[in-house]
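Supplementary Text 2. Reproducibility record for the structural model of the 129-residue chain.

All settings were left at their defaults, and a single model was retained for analysis rather than an ensemble. We include the record here because the model underlies the residue-level annotations in Supplementary Table 4.
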Amino acid sequence: MLKRDFIMVQIEELGKVIAQIINQRNTDAARTNPDLIGSVYTSLKIDHEYMMDHSPKEIRLFLDGEDNAGLQRMEIAAKLLIEEAYLHTEKQHEIREKAKEILQYIQLHDITFSIERVQLLNELADQLS
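Retained model, structure tokens:
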């Protein structure tokens, strides 16, 4: 129980960093976003290339670790990809497609319903069309 609580606190902290990145997206502070993105990837023990080159199922298995909290980590990683799309306009479509694929996988396999996830999927669908 304590280990699970500790892991959930870590995931919550990563979510706060993602929120900071989103809040800085269109400000002068956005110049720090690449460093923040790198720190989240480091915390997740994964990188952009792995995310882009592997299936959602493979990503989940990698992120599950000992605690089976892979879906929660995947959602953070998908949000990270969405923010990276704003930084890498030349690969924006490809990155958003991957984020959408990951969020759809989470939506299919997670037992909790997330309005935020549905909203992100709708925004990605609009951006990709």
